[in-house]
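Example 380, ligand pyridoxal-5'-phosphate.
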Amino acid sequence: MKIPLVDLKAQYESIKDEIQAAVARVLETSQFILGREVEDFEEAFARYSNARYAVGVNSGTSAVYLTLLALGVGPGDEVVTVSHTFIATVEAISWTGAKPVFVDIEERTYNIDVRQIEAAVTPKTKVIIPVHLYGHPADMDPILEIAKRRNLFVIEDACQAHGALYKGKKVGGLATAACFSFYPGKNLGAYGEGGAVLTNDEALATQLRKLRNHGGLGKYSHEILGMNARLEGIQGAILKTKLPYLDRWNELRRRHVEEYNSFLSEAGVGLPDEAPEVRSAFHLYVIRAPYRDELNAYLNEQGIGSIVHYPAPNHLLECFKNLGYKRGDLPVTEKVSKEVLSLPLYPELTLEQIRFVSETIQSFLKEKSRPRSPAKTALS
Ligand SMILES: *Cc1c(COP(=O)(O)O)cnc(C)c1O
């Protein structure tokens, strides 16, 4: 049995006719960049997330970068975030010229440890970026409280959390702005690159619309220094077609998480947790495993597409060595990065596949824990 980490083809097959009609609409109107389909999607995605404005951009990385630029973040500023995240969060901060300042995570949810934020805030801090990692929303209320008291902006990195809830409210409308990625493997994925920023702040939305389009709203209008970071028409049409399925797909992810949890309850691995105040979007199913690297290699050999998110924390990456962090600075982040393992998870996964993955893990760990009986004793 071959079980990939995600199966984009299976999802495409389930909505093929609608997708082909959507793509055909764009081809017929030839609105390949921004245009009607992108505007319709922006409106639908903002409404879905209870945010006032959505600005479609060409990736999640651009979403974070442009939002920071729009808020005036640059050299001399500091942005507080986590090291246990996809590199894009930290890249985006770095390209503004601001300095990323890392806070450790809490071990249960893998999200920013809100008790440690205040100690990381200095007079140079402008923004806090909590990352809703693996689809599990960060604990936003204490973050927003600190931000209010210290006069900081908060940007949700919601690139892995489309449709997740925090205290009954959709992520995306909880802070100054929220950034989404529509990379194909995300819970809401384009068929190419894509991203969006949500905000309730009209001036910020307008600034973002200019930044993504060479500094102006119309052709050859260049009011500010911008760039090209526009969402394509075909991606807008595809995303608009897929959005109505998002909640159902997230429900299926949740069901598969429960199935994994019951199959793996006695396996000797750590299972994912969900804080009582949230409803995770379960972008990934992440276990904590002994012999993690060996297990990962074994699963891959058996045709199972497990992978590590992420093998090295950002503060220890070569490209960020200028930030001056060293091993031991973020103990929970460093511990977790040695133990986490993501198992295949996507809405179309079957119970049989989940059972196979779980049994393969169990047989590997059983073999590992068998006391080694040296040949000598066997003979005596
Ligand atoms: C995917 C992702 C991004 C970047 O999105 P791209 O669309 O790939 O640029 C940023 N942050 C997090 C946490 C992500 O998972």
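Summary: The chain has a mean pLDDT of 96.
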